[in-house]
Structure formats: C-alpha cells, structure tokens
Design a protein that fits this description.
By secondary structure, the protein is mainly α. The chain is built from three helices and no strands.
Length: 95
C-alpha cells in the first residue's frame, strides 16, 4: 500500500501545528505544567499556614484560660523571672 503525498503533507502539518500550539504559544503546555507545580506548592503552604493558625489558636485559648500556661509562656519567651529566681541563658545556635 502506497502512501499518498497528500497524506504525508497532512500528517506533517498536523504534527507541526500541534508542536506550535503546545510549545510555542504564550499559554503553552510547559507553562501549564509549571502552573500546576506552583499551585500544588501554594496549596501545601496554605495547609501549613492553616495548621500554624490552628496551633496558635490553641495556644491563645490555653493562655487565656490558664494562668500557669500564661506564666510559663512569659518566662520562656520574654525571660521573665520572679525576684529571687536564678535565670540561666543558654544560647540557641540553631538559628
């Protein structure tokens, strides 16, 4: 069975058209893939921020209702101490 020149022309034209559409236009396939990665990354960030917000809400609730939790937070964060307490500062080299 012999292929006609018209069939070859149509096939190559279609391939060229698809390559141009998928790779050389402004909204091409590569941009779609990059956008998909960006969206997934941002969705993970949103989940992380929502978890952080939830944890902070729990801390706020605990500090609002329990005086001991508030005092512990103040002592650890702001280095508060009662008169007569010994305070030891240990440098944090993880930052």
């Amino acid at each position: 069975m012999k292929k006609s020149p018209l069939l070859k022309y149509v096939l190559w034209s279609t391939v060229a058209f698809l390559v141009i559409i998928l790779f050389f236009r402004h909204d091409n396939l590569i941009r779609w893939i990059r956008a998909g990665f960006t969206i997934r990354k941002q969705e993970r960030q949103i989940e992380w921020y929502n978890k952080e917000i939830s944890d902070l809400d729990k801390q706020i609730e605990a500090m609002s209702t329990d005086r001991d939790t508030l005092e512990k937070f103040a002592r650890e964060t702001f280095l508060f101490a009662e008169p007569g307490d010994d305070v030891y500062l240990i440098p944090d080299d993880t930052k």
